[in-house]
Amino acid sequence: MSVRRLADDAVQPKSFAFSRENAAWAKKRIALYPKGRQQSAVIPLLMRVQDQEGWISRAAIEKVASMLDMPTIRVLEVATFYTQFQLQPVGTRAHVQVCGTTPCMLRGAEELRAVCKKKIHEQPHQTNADGTMSWEEVECMGACVNAPMVAIGHDTYEDLTPERLEEILDAFERGEGDSVPTGPQNGRNHSAPVTGQTTLLEVPERKLEAPARSMPAASAAKAGNAAKGARPGSKVIGGGTGRKSGAAAAKPEAGALFVRPEGEPDDLKMISGVGPVLEGKLNALGVTRFEQVAAFSREDIEALDDALSFKGRIDRDEWLKQAAALAIGPDEYFKVFGKKAKVNKPAAKKNAGRTSSGE
Ligand code: FES
Question: What is d(CA 321, CA 132) in angstroms, rounded to the nearest whole number?
Fold first, then answer.
């Protein structure tokens, strides 16, 4: 292990303070430990510092030591021992941790490292010219089956190619990191075999009940056609996508591909892979509801691929499957994907009201 030292004085801030929210969190966290054992909160507090600032400064170490009533040297020992703690300033938009252990190395980690060198900085632990990005090589992060991979913040991006990593870094550089789907980047389901699932092939009947809000008549008329695009084993909820062709009554607005459903739009950003920009484009094309996305036909997907110029992304990010789950509610999303749906304020508040029974 290399020697880990605090950053040069030139970059050390004069003071550190937790934000109001984090200070309240720290207070609660410290109270979890029995009297006299508050020092056990040192690692959680240092992690919170890092989540807030991106790295651990000397001032932050002193602050944590005073909060826990422990000698500064003891906190310094912890911060310098665990490599999860960054001791230098990191990129303000992304700090990329490239796994360089054997499975990832055999599957292309060196090419990923070359991408970081090219796009961020020749040396690890150095920020790019704008201070927005930085990178380092780390040891195994436990996602070897989906090698090669990187971690950015608390998320991992797996089954990477150099090209895909470049796209991801560009998205973070633009400040659109939230729109990048986490996990496998090659369409595989979690750590299922890359050549396709070989077990548990029968899809259990999943009962999806229609949400309380009704779809417009034109969308309902398209339901049969749109259902062809729904995921296997799922039932299309509420109606079709409302594309123009074959719709009996309503017509899409000028410039739109789909008949915009009546009522309040869903927060489409909850679909992993959809950010604010993409949501705006989808809304302009008449797509505002999870039920619409869940019922996309192949024809709809191709039309959207053309309109949005991102071939294959709807399939790769499993929009239909995500939307079908989100139409029921966050609980269903968690059941299907094993992780929480994205939360965006304030629209997520509305969707969070849905339950697995579709209420
Ligand atoms: S070797 Fe890279 S995640 Fe394990």
Answer: 34
pLDDT digits (tens, 9 = 90+) for 240-293: 444 444 444 577 787 788 888 888 899 998 888 888 878 888 888 889 999 889
| Ligand 1 centre distance from Cα of residue 103 (Å) | 6
Q: What is the atom index within ligand 1 of the atom nearest the CA of 109?
A: 2
Judge whether residue 351 has pLDDT over 60.
no
Rounded to a whole number of angstroms, the distance between the first and last alpha carbons of the chain is 54
Q: For the chain, list the domains and their CATH numbers.
A: 9-81 (1.10.10.1590), 94-184 (3.40.30.10), 217-352 (no CATH)
User: Does ligand 1 lie within 6 Å of residue 109's CB atom?
Assistant: no
How many other C-beta atoms can be found within 10 angstroms of the C-beta atom of residue 186? 12
Return the beta strands (E) in 106-186 as ranges: 133-138, 150-152, 155-158, 183-184
Give me the DSSP letters along 21-33. Answer: HHHHHHHHHHHTS
| Cis peptide bond prior to 265, omega within 30° of 0 | no
